[in-house]
Amino acid sequence: MDRDEAQHVLEAALLCAGRPLTLAELVALFDGALSASDVHAALQGLQRAWETRGLALVCVAGGWRFQTRAQVHPFLQRLHPEKPPRYSRAVLETLAVIAYRQPVTRGDIEAIRGVTVGTSILRQLEERGWIEVVGHRETVGRPALYATTRQFLDDLGLASLQALPAIDEPADPTRELPGLGSASDVTSESTP
């Protein structure tokens, strides 16, 4: 089978699939006629062939998929004017803690955020398919350990957790504050 024919088969499979397809699934299409490296090379050729189009072939955590390019999103939104779900700051903070510190317990999240995490927040993230319980901590009460899912990476278009943007280190509470001296010297006023 030549590369052009392989690219046509891959293109059809990826365009018809409702989800990302792994390299193993794509190799299985050819029933041993092509090796994984041959399929990977064909995928790269297909990527180059679609560079100037409205769709792009990308590799995400769940495998390979076609997705729309950012510059065509405003036009496509006119077809389906529904608004994407909006998430509260608490939901997004909780998701960020889980993504960057996983696996974490609810207590870990509360310690980092400094507030109680409502059950509804965790349930909303679980229903979206972005987090799941991956085990239990061996301690009193055996609290659930939460981690992000492959669906989270796929929905954000990431190949792995290493593709998450870097975060700044937490501020040093003893650092000098402009015009105030060190943060530990600042006291809040209390009302009697």
Computed CA radius of gyration, to the nearest angstrom: 23 Å
N-C termini distance: 84 Å
Largest sheet: 2 strands, antiparallel
Q: Residue-averaged pLDDT, rounded? A: 84
The proportion of strand residues reads 5-15%
- The neighbouring-strand order within the major sheet is 1-2
Helix content: 25-40%
Quaternary assembly: single chain
Tally of strands? 6
Low-confidence stretches: 171-192
Helix/strand-derived category reads: alpha+beta
- Structural shape: globular
Task: Count up the helices.
Answer: 8
SSE pattern: HHHEEHHHHEEHEE
Summarize it:
The chain has helices spanning 3-16, 23-28, 36-49, 73-76, 89-101, 106-113, 119-128, 150-155, and strands at residues 55-60, 63-68, 131-136, 144-148, 176-177, 181-182.
Output the keywords.
192 residues, alpha+beta, two-stranded antiparallel ribbon, two-stranded antiparallel sheet, 6 strands, 14% strand, disordered C terminus
Description:
The chain is an alpha+beta fold and 192 residues long. The chain contains 8 helices and 6 strands; from the N terminus they run αααββααααββαββ. Helix content is 39%, strand content 14%. Residues 171-192 have low confidence and may be disordered. The chain has a two-stranded antiparallel sheet. Strands 3-4 form a two-stranded antiparallel sheet. The radius of gyration is 23 Å and the shape is globular.
